[in-house]
Structure formats: C-alpha cells, structure tokens
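Look over this one:
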Amino acid sequence: MNWLIKNGKMLRDNGELKEMDIRVKDGLIAEVGSHLKNNGEQEYDAAGLLVTPGLVDLHIHLREPGGETRETIETGTMAAARGGFTTVAPMPNTRPVPDNAEQMEWLVNRIEETGKVKVLPYAAISVGQQGEELVDFKALKEAGAFAFTDDGYGVQTAAKMYEAMQQAANLDMAVVAHCEDNSLIYGGALHEGEFSRKSGVPGIPSICESVHIARDVLLAEAANCHYHVCHISTKESVRTVRDAKRAGIKVTAEVSPHHLILCDEDITDANDTNFKMNPPLRAKADREALIEGLLDGTIDFIATDHAPHTAEDKAKKVTEAPFGIVGLETAFPLLYTHFVEKGHFTLKQLVDWMTVAPSNTFKLDSGTLNVGRSADITLIDLEKEQKIDPSKFLSKGRNTPFSGWTCKGWPAATFVNGEIKWSEGRDN
C-alpha cells in the first residue's frame, strides 16, 4: 500500500520542528515536502505528531528458541513496533545458541515467518557461549549474522577475545561485548554500594565491568577490530572508553534507559527483583557519568537491553531471580519525559541517539527519512500522557521497575517498509 503521511512535524538539522508531508511508494520514501498532493495514496493524518525515522534498538532479547514462555520473536517484535522501533537486534543467549550456520539459518527463517519489524540477529562468539571454542565466523556471517557477541557472558580469556577480534576484523564485522570478569562478581545481585551493604544483599563491584573494557580496547587496537561495549554502567568504564576513543581505537558503546534514569539509591525494596538487572543499577556518580558520556559523544547511542522474564522467575529471592527488565514499549516515553521535558537533552539529541547514531555506528540502512530509503517511520504523540501499565504490554514480560510512572511522548504509529505494523486504536 502507498501512503501519504500528512501534516506531521519533522525535526530539521537545527532542531526546529517543521510541518512536512511524506509520500511512501512501494515501501520507500518517494517524496518529502510541504503541502504534497494526494496521488491516490492512502492518507494518514499526522497532525500534531512528531515524525521520525523508525527507532533502532541494537540490544534486545527475544528468547526464541528455548525461552518461549518469556518471549517469542512474534511477541517481542510486536512490542518493538508498539514502542516505535522498526529495527532490532536480538542477542544469541537462546537455546540452542546461534553458534553455527545451520542454527543461524533456522533463526533467519523464523524471523522471516513471524517477525513484525526488521530483525538483525547476533551470532555467538564462542560455541555454546562457553568462551572456549570459537565459532566459524565466516560461515555465520554468510548465514545472516549481524555481529558477534556472547552477551550475557563475558569472554574470560584475553587470548580467545583477541582471536575472535582478529577473525571478525578480517570479515569487517564487529565484536560486541558483555563486559564482566567472573572472578570479580562474588555472587552479587545488586551494585556493590551503600544500598547493598545496608540491605545485606551481595554486591557486584564496578571494577567487574571496567577491567574487561580496559583489556578489550587494547586487544581491539591490536586486532584493528570494531569493538562495541554493551550496556555500559560505570564511571570507570566511561573514562576508559573516552580514553580509548582519544587514542584512535575503534571502540563504540551503548547505554540503557534504566541506567540513565535510575541508580541504586532509587531501589525501594531489596526484594523487588524488578530492580535487578545486569549490569546492576550503579551509584549516582555512575549515572551522572553516563549522562555526561552520552552528551560528549563517548557513548554512541541508547539501547534498551529488553530482557523479559516470567512472573514466576522474578518472584524468586533477589539472589536467585534472573537479571533483566523489559524496555521496548517504554523507552522513548521514559527518556522523553525524564530528559527532554526537563531540559537535559534536546528532542533532536534523543531522536538521534535512538535512530541515526546506532545506524551509523553499525553502517545500517536505517535512521533516516531521506528520499529513496526504506519507509521505516515512527509517529510520536509528544503531548499524550499516560501511566505505564505492564498489564497492557504486548511483550510477554511484565518485569519493569517503572510500573505506574506517568510519561509523555508515546508512539502513535509505526511503519516498516511502508506498512503499518502498529498504530494506536487499530487492530494490529
């Protein structure tokens, strides 16, 4: 179906909003301008709505195969569409792991069958994500892998990470790292800080993350590899990435909304496992360093680390419950309300960190509304205000610490390749 999206507000390069129309033909953006004439297209009146490139989230968990009670490719991508995301990249900590060409081909086919938005699957770095035997990088790239990561597990030996970076660099592929030194976890469940000490919950020290990043940026320099840091969370990690970038090392980093908005002082109850994620909510000084790192370009973009779990699993004791919270359906409203409305970020900065920046970092054909590009478009009602209600999520996961928070800036419609994949008030 061809569309004429009328009267929407688009961000200009200077950050100002201008009312514009977009003509969509055969899945592509055919024309952008003012007062475009209808040439027989289906019309969508976007009056009062912000029109942005489709949001891009390069760190989510879809759980399929093996974890379908928590999420599926279908439910997770429906949640993505509702959150305004048109491109997502799921991590490989599934069972079985996409660590060989056959499993990657199965995953690509399953995505084609049930995915509602564009899905770029990661492949594992090591067989079974065990950190011992490296995968066949070339075969996995040919089978459809987007990049390589053992997310959920830090690669523990420098030799294996160095070899992985060398192989990935030879294929012009990125190594994406969950940075965690297992010898420094100490059985922790929350950040090692004042709250964990007061509550008696074992803590995870910040150094657990930053020492891996320090190791890896030097390995990346030696291997000439694009090295990307997942869900950065500590001030020491930010400093290390900043120093590495200044040294000309090809390192990039992402930050999650919950680490920007919350710190361990915001945990209301040590037994509320909706506050348990990995990396954990760090100290206030860490949160401030993350915001500063995003603003000065040390951190490249925002990614949700959407990690759905069942209510039964999250009902376990804090030391036994799984890490992770959901984020696809709430990311933009939370960030818009907490940062743009309060004057900490501009609207253009937020939109860029969720569209242009991840696309440019990984050389993707997304994050733009230019003529000739895919019509991946998100419409957002910046004035709509409502409470976060997990019972209404399209994701199977309800595990969020933001339940009941009132936010503005809710997606109203999401187009992927010129097709509406989700729209408020429609049967999707």
